[in-house]
Design goal:
The protein contains 16 helices and twelve strands. The protein has 435 residues and is α/β, with parallel strands linked by helices. The protein folds into two domains: 148 residues, Leucine Dehydrogenase, chain A, domain 1 (Rossmann fold), CATH 3.40.50.10860; 165 residues, Rossmann fold, CATH 3.40.50. The strands form two sheets. A seven-stranded mixed sheet has the order 9-8-7-6-10-11-12, sandwiched between helices. Strands 1-2-4-3-5 form a five-stranded mixed sheet, sandwiched between helices. The longest helix is centred in the C-terminal third of the chain and has 23 residues. Bound molecules: NADPH dihydro-nicotinamide-adenine-dinucleotide phosphate (NDP).
Length: 435
């Protein structure tokens, strides 16, 4: 805490890992303690902070702050998304980069961990403003990334449009077409299934969690938060698997459809979201549904809860409500959406709980597959990428089971993911000497 003042999210993420990893090292691998692996993993290898100036449509000069946190490169080039949101600060990016190290390790792919972004708010900006911002951001970022060095991707506020503008600027500066970003369009180096990967992967993981308990997902009631990339594709896959999804949300409130979303209804939500609709009024006018401002999905009883919006969006009160209402599975589509208090309560209750670093790793996994395709100059089919994604999610589930199975037979996915993700990085760090 003294080394990282005013970084509560980063301290939260480190504490959550340390609580599992320190007892593991004491019991099974004291060499990692001697090597001070955890202390070294906590310190980013490099943090870059830079000025991003751009001109808005009125000709006024705007100034934002850009960052790239290069956390750990023990098992591969830094890899992790870029977030554009006014909430971005060093604490948030360090927590995300730290989580990314373990998540990327769990995928089994050779990917180090990083994260970046800016306090730029893409909402209510014109296309041209977004483009000018992205170009200015990449002008500096281009000095620090490369296909064998650091390969950023999208995150909140950064989708295919932003990746396009960022990629175009890198190409203009360097005069080379290389895989320096993932999440590219399918016609210019992107992988099929990348937009769907985090949401689909989340559901592949949930299926495994339920399978472990002999429960079928068919007919189960699911509440989802968020209505962005992860939420939309999680909802689509859940509906395709036969579940009933009854909520999505945004920072203003929650949309509840008691009959459950169909695929057509989800596409309608996507259209409204892309138009910038905040209250889903066109949806509630058309379908028997309600939008409740200031509320979250966790007020509605469900079997499975999938927080897919943002960090610390599900607190102890929400967790108590979910437990009381009979929810038996919580899997994180977002990064660290449950507060530390909520996680403790959920674990105590016996609910199956999967942390984001395991359950939402599908996105970075397919980003890793995009890097492979770029290197060999190939485009794999949708079926091939989807099959690989499913395989990776099953492997992550197996790793969690291996390291997280308790004497009672219950699986502590948090412990399994923390230890499973840690070991590979720790071994590589030991092998590479004191650096
Ligand atoms: P998007 O920007 O596409 O969507 C984010 C969604 O969350 C929006 O609907 C947004 O609503 C909502 N939201 C933001 N803040 C809040 C809040 N305080 N309360 C309720 N809703 C909120 O982002 P993604 O879907 O890509 O990312 C969502 C989460 O998943 C993040 O934690 C991200 O780090 C994580 N993640 C994403 C991956 C990916 O592949 N995209 C991979 C792994 C993790 P509004 O429109 O009001 O802002």
């Amino acid at each position: 805490k003294e080394r990282n003042p005013n970084q509560p999210e980063f301290i939260q993420a480190v504490t959550e890992v340390a609580e599992d990893v320190i007892p593991y090292m004491e019991e099974c691998n004291p060499a990692f303690l001697d090597e001070k692996i955890l202390e070294r993993i906590m310190e980013p290898e490099r943090v870059v902070s830079f000025r991003v100036c751009w001109e808005d449509d009125n000709g006024d000069i705007q100034i934002n702050r850009g960052f790239r946190v290069q956390m750990n490169s023990a098992i591969g080039p830094y890899k992790g998304g870029l977030r554009f949101s006014p909430t971005v600060n060093l604490s948030i990016l360090k927590f995300l980069a730290f989580e990314q190290v373990f998540k990327n390790s769990l995928t089994g792919l050779p990917l180090g961990g990083g994260k970046g972004g800016s306090d730029f708010d893409p909402r209510n900006k014109s296309n041209k403003e977004i483009m000018r911002f992205c170009q200015s951001f990449m002008t500096e970022l281009s000095r620090h990334i490369g296909s064998n060095v650091d390969v950023p991707a999208g995150d909140i506020g950064v989708g295919e449009r932003e990746i396009g503008y960022l990629f175009g600027q890198y190409k203009r500066i360097r005069n080379e077409f290389t895989g320096i970003l993932t999440g590219k369009g399918p016609g210019w180096g992107g992988s099929l299934i990348r937009p769907e990967a985090t949401g689909y992967g989340l559901l592949y993981f949930v299926e495994q969690m339920l399978y472990e308990r002999n429960i079928s997902i068919k007919g189960k009631v699911i509440t989802i938060s968020g209505s962005g990339n992860v939420a939309q594709f999680a909802a689509i896959k859940a509906v395709n698997l036969g579940a009933k999804v009854i909520t999505v949300s945004n920072s203003d409130g929650v949309l509840h459809d008691k009959d459950g979303f169909t695929i057509d209804k989800i596409h309608f939500i996507t259209k409204l979201k892309n138009k910038g609709s905040r209250d889903f009024k066109e949806y509630t006018d058309l379908y028997d549904s309600t939008f409740t401002p200031g509320k979250t999905p966790w007020i509605y009883p469900c079997d499975i809860a999938l927080p897919c919006a943002t960090q610390n969006e599900l607190d102890t009160e929400d967790a108590a409500f979910l437990i009381k209402n009979g929810c038996f599975c919580i899997a994180e589509g977002a990064n660290m959406p449950c507060t530390m208090g909520a996680v403790k309560l959920i674990l105590k209750s016996g609910i199956s709980y999967a942390p984001g670093k395991a359950a939402n790793a599908g996105g970075v996994a397919v980003s890793g597959l995009e890097m492979s395709q770029n290197r060999i100059g190939q485009c794999w089919t949708e079926e091939k990428v989807d099959a690989k994604l499913k395989h990776i999610m099953h492997d992550i589930h197996n790793t969690c089971t291996h390291y997280g199975k308790e004497e009672s037979g219950k699986i502590n996915y948090l412990k399994g993911a923390n230890i499973g993700g840690f070991i590979k990085v720790a071994k590589a760090m030991c092998a590479q000497g004191i650096v």
